[in-house]
Amino acid sequence: MKHHLLAAALVAAFAAAPAQAVTLTSSSGAAVTSYSSGSLLAYDLDFTTLGTASLTFTLDAADIGSTLSFNALVRNLSGLGIDGVTMTLTGASFGEPGSIATDGFQAITASGSSAQQAWARFSPGLTTDLYLGAPLGEGTNWTINLAGAQAGGSFTIAVAVPEPETYALMLAGMALVGVAARRAHRVKG
């Protein structure tokens, strides 16, 4: 009889436990600590070198058709200032936009979002922390819409923090294209 009660208690405990929001199945480009539970997708992302971090999450049956609350703490541990950050979703979309904030040492000069991306620009370059949503309890969490997803399917969040040299190279390349176009126009004219 005691075995039946023990088994019933275990079944009840697992049934009452909150479902895992999604499972982080792979990551690259930065150190990740996940704090996800229930209907909350939350993580800390620590960049020691600048570039792109990619996080892939797998869905279970409880996630299908739901909306997840989302927040993240992004730390720049590289010692370099970053001019901007872009977060891109693949396999899911943003529902309601949330807040984007810094720890107050750098200002956000511009920010925006679409169904697939959220971005922010900083001045001076961000050298400390970025808060997407309310990872520390202040602000508004983002939502991620999982409508149309399948159990066992996945979605990816890519967080890009390009090095300042990337912008310089891009601008130099655009300038060279402009000079070449101007010369070509002069030759034709």
Automatic annotation (TrEMBL):
It comes from Pelomonas dachongensis. This is PEP-CTERM sorting domain-containing protein. Pfam families: PEP-CTERM. The keyword 4Fe-4S does not apply. Coiled coil: none annotated. Residues 1-21 form the signal peptide. The keyword Signal applies. Residues 160-183 form the Ice-binding protein C-terminal domain. Transmembrane segments: none annotated. It comes from the Bacteria. Keywords: Signal. NCBIfam families: PEP_CTERM.
